[in-house]
Amino acid sequence: MVKLHISTIINGEPEEFLCEPEETMLDVLRDRLSLTGSKEGCGSGDCGACSITVDGSLICSCLMLAAESEGKKIETIEGMSDGETLHPLQQKFLEEAALQCGICTPGMLVAAKALLDENPDPTETEVRFWLAGNLCRCTGYDKIVRAVLDTAQEIRETK
Ligand code: FES
Ligand code: FES
Is CATH 3.30.460.80 what the domain over 4-79 is classified as, yes or no? Predict the structure, then answer.
């Protein structure tokens, strides 16, 4: 089987890997690069557990071929904190108990960060609409939405 040689940037660091043409970005992240924060919930674009950003756009990594990452900038949950310092969204999710089993949490955080990068002052409706592609079987969503809104307010107040 022919392997493709891909050069990309992942969480700010140059990365090269070999992959098969049909391998997904999610499979390469998890199985070849040991970046297992992105989860596979459905494998069909329905749950958001595998959310990453590619050149700043939020996508489901289970729907992207790894070969498509050539020359792109990929951000995963592993790049969200600043060393030991959690991103404000991560901190707020912990403080406000916006997670239970945690399977959806990396995808929720990546998606929420993409929202706040684009819209630092979202309404509750906008948060719910943005996160509609991220499914959670545990929390009932209210704590997640509250944590995102509270983080947005905190970030605005500290600027
Ligand atoms: S695993 Fe990608 S959307 Fe569910
Ligand atoms: S915390 Fe369990 S699926 Fe969301």
Answer: no
Residue nearest to atom 4 of ligand 2 (CA): 136
| Of 104, 86, 84, the residue nearest 37 (C-alpha) | 104
Query: What are the mean pLDDT values of the chain's consecutive 10-residue runs (159 residues total)?
Result: 94 98 98 98 98 98 98 98 97 98 98 98 98 97 98 95
Q: Which residues pair with 5 in a beta bridge?
A: 18
Ligand with the closest atom to the CA of 135: 2
For the record, the structure tokens of 136 come out as: 């959670």
Specify the pTM.
0.97
Distance (Å) from CA 136 to ligand 1 centroid: 12
Structure tokens at 127: 């948060």
For the chain, the domains span 4-79, 88-157
